[in-house]
RNA sequence: CGGGGCGUAGCGCAGCCCGGUUAGCGCGCCUGCUUCGGGAGCAGGAGGUCGGAGGUUCAAAUCCUCUCGCCCCGACCA
């Protein structure tokens, strides 16, 4: 804990790794590529789950749970799905001391087992729509892993819905994309761009994939959530049909959508600085930490009891507050530690403050210090947290805008991408060949075709062929 | 899979090239005193089969062979 962090400007990946470990979000596991999510990190995840779960339920979804193990044959039923996921499957071949007749794969995502099940659940248009979400762990044997951003096993939610029409499925796809956008911006304080994925980048088995894309502190992009319109691909692969009102048999239309513990990585990299994490107040495990300050035993008695009283009032005001009354640590040490852990607001309570009936607040987001009357603090707390949220969001948005460029020539594209990086709005001829060529030349990929962008005639920055709109290129995680 | 690095106390490391007393250092931990408004000081103390196996040698953390694991950088991916 006492080690100093590597500065972001010196080595960003190293900073990331150190801050995740030192702030107590996660630890390495004995298994390659896996991590142990520690209580502080898991509480953050629980807070994210709670809000997302509420949003899903408000839009008519219910939770269910499907098995971890999937018969291997299921994975082979949808052609693109097989191709996309085969290389990263973990397979169980032995159990109960015997070799299994059919191996089981550990789910990398649950479309197949869910659509196998939906076949039994759906007969009529009256059974639709079917709006189910599950909170689960999944496993993908990636070649290279990074804490939270890409681990072999990760936690996520996956929604799987079934609809009677293509229009309904498309509406659902966009509805959930919008929920992800709202969650990212209103809770994580991370501004995101919503858009459509290119053919190359879309989900294996989808008709179309939409995503929210965020810009990290090192000016690289992070895909923070995806929503897929699966069309009738899985319904056909698993023979899921229904009778419509006219008595005709049709294949069901599907969507799936998910966000994962990767979002924790997004929070770390969107907001963190050289002193550590900066957690968005609406998700922070600890929103305010109260540090009593004293020299003598009498002062300790005075400030600690004042702190206890304050903490009680703050809890009643709905604040997630922590009292740091550890006697063996000095205040300066505690300040540094809570800053590393990204607590939005620190409340310092010393003899002078108690005498003045005030509290000294220190804001993590901008280091501002402010004295507030003790009696007013509980009533003021939510507003202060909201203010912090806005500052965080505004700063992240400003950063993104400062690192977003419209580029019109291949030279400019390469230069900007190299230094400083960021989002590049550029014309693209719409072909996978060009996309691949650009990736090979620069390591940049098309993050998305933004939804809220106007059409504009131009020529492809790489091939010079005609283009109808700009797309966003960036180096990505 | 290619490239690089690392396994020595809870954590971070030195020692290894050039073998040789009881294997060190910092942080943390325990005890005591003084401290406490930006990462405290002093004194005392506990804590190790040096990743594993085999070999060379009078003697191996150190040399040789094999092996296991993890991390970082790239290619693949949420």
How would the global form be characterised?
Answer: globular
- CATH C-level category of the largest domain: Alpha Beta
Low-confidence sequence ranges? none
Q: Estimate the helix proportion, in percent.
A: 25-40%
Number of helices: 14
Rounded radius of gyration (Å): 25 Å
| CATH architecture designation of the largest domain | 2-Layer Sandwich
Counting DSSP E segments of at least 2 residues, the number of strands comes to 25
Structural class: alpha+beta
Going across the biggest sheet, name each strand in turn.
Answer: 3-7-8-14-11-10-9-22-25-21-20
Helix and strand arrangement:
Layout: H1 12-22, E1 26-28, E2 35-37, H2 39-58, E3 62-63, E4 69-71, H3 72-75, H4 79-85, E5 90-95, E6 98-106, H5 111-121, E7 130-139, E8 153-163, H6 166-186, E9 193-196, E10 208-215, E11 221-231, H7 233-237, E12 241-243, E13 249-251, E14 253-260, H8 262-271, E15 288-292, H9 297-316, E16 321-323, H10 331-340, E17 345-349, H11 351-356, E18 358-363, E19 369-373, H12 377-402, E20 404-406, H13 410-418, E21 423-427, H14 432-442, E22 445-450, E23 458-459, E24 466-467, E25 470-474
Parallel strand pairs: 3-7, 15-16, 15-17, 20-21
Antiparallel strand pairs: 1-2, 4-6, 5-6, 7-8, 8-14, 9-10, 9-22, 10-11, 11-14, 12-13, 17-18, 18-19, 21-25, 22-25, 23-24
The protein binds one RNA strand of 78 nucleotides through residues 1-4, 13-14, 17, 28, 30, 32, 84, 87-88, 109, 138, 140, 142-144, 149-150, 154, 156, 203, 211, 222-226, 258-262, 291, 293-296, 299-300, 327, 329-337, 348, 350-353, 360, 443, 477.
